[in-house]
Amino acid sequence: MATSVNVHGEDKVVVDMTKLVPSLPLETRCPPFPLRQYGGFWLPEGILPALEAIPTRFETRPSDVFRASFPKSGTTWLKALAFATINRDEHPPSDEHHPLRHRGPHDCVKFFEPTVAATGSLDDFAALPSPRLLSTHVLRSDRDIWIRGVGEEEQRRGLRRTEEGTGRTELAGERIVLGG
After folding, report:
1. For 125-164, what is each residue's pLDDT tens digit?
2. Annotated catalytic sites, by residue?
3. Rounded to an integer, what distance in angstroms lies between the CA atom of residue 107 and that of residue 113?
4. Where does the record place the Sulfotransferase domain (predicted)?
5. Are 3 and 16 in contact (CB under 8 A)?
6. Range 2-179 has CATH code 3.40.50.300
């Protein structure tokens, strides 16, 4: 069920989700989709294959901003705030053509896992200009596999890792705190 592979210069254990998913506990009383328990969390069955693909094929950038939150915890609001903050130079709040005036926050900041699960590709995210705002509901232990190499150099550039359990990411120099 799990194999060891070299992911961006590091040996990582990657789980074969096609074999693992049928063995996970199933919950069908939450329409419209079945949930599977993985890593102590109930996740939509359809996104589980993306959890295998992302760490092996996704290349992070030092300027990436991950907006991570639990479902139903203010995600839409946080996406709108983060998008408006990060893009304030290009789209001032008074701009009548501001993307958030014409599209919803979920269109401006796509969720990682469902997008990858639906398309089977990371091309949508690779094409985004820096800084990329990326959204996820994935639990921290799996997310840390994606975010490799965020160390002293990136911290000097402005990205600070979240403190365990705080749900906050602070961007140095800008005094911006994104949290959930």
Report:
1. 899 998 999 888 776 555 554 554 444 454 444 444 444 4
2. 137
3. 14
4. 62-138
5. yes
6. yes
